[in-house]
Protein: Epimerase
Amino acid sequence: TCSNYGKMPDPEGYVDEESPLNPISLYAETKVGFEQYLREALSPEFCPVILRFATAHGLSPRPRFDLTVNEFTRDLTMGRKLEIYGEQFWRPYCHVADLAHACRLALELKSDRIAGGAFNVGATDQNYTKKMLAENILRELGTDAELISYVQRGNDPRDYRVNFNKIKTTFGFTISRT
Structure:
């Protein structure tokens, strides 16, 4: 998961696979710990590949509304007021079908090219602030901007804009949905 990056040291920059990991939730801590475990278990018989997914979005039989794209789309479609805090914070997004495609590519590539490697999965141009995301959803829905208010509430420690060039050059991965 790209949440392994936590908060970027430079809000104008990007993080990539060589950037230090800064997990700030139990979820991210367990992911970072398991990445280390997989790397230590690397052997000629076991060739793990680490895929750090952008935040997923897309239809599902049971959507998760704790994910920003799904939450914002649901609330705005239903005409609900949407309060957004940390509107300036960045997140990368990727459609679930594109994430599945990356998994398939990882299984098909020769293990000597990718074994033990970490790859951010997504597209660099799909990094959005929460405000940009909400504006895109409003535009697609043709919904009134008055449904959105930006509020100050605590400081969301997650803020990361991710570079996805490594998976593009190594896997030939590109997204098909935005």
Q: What stands out?
A: The chain has a mean pLDDT of 91. The chain has one domain: 2-171.
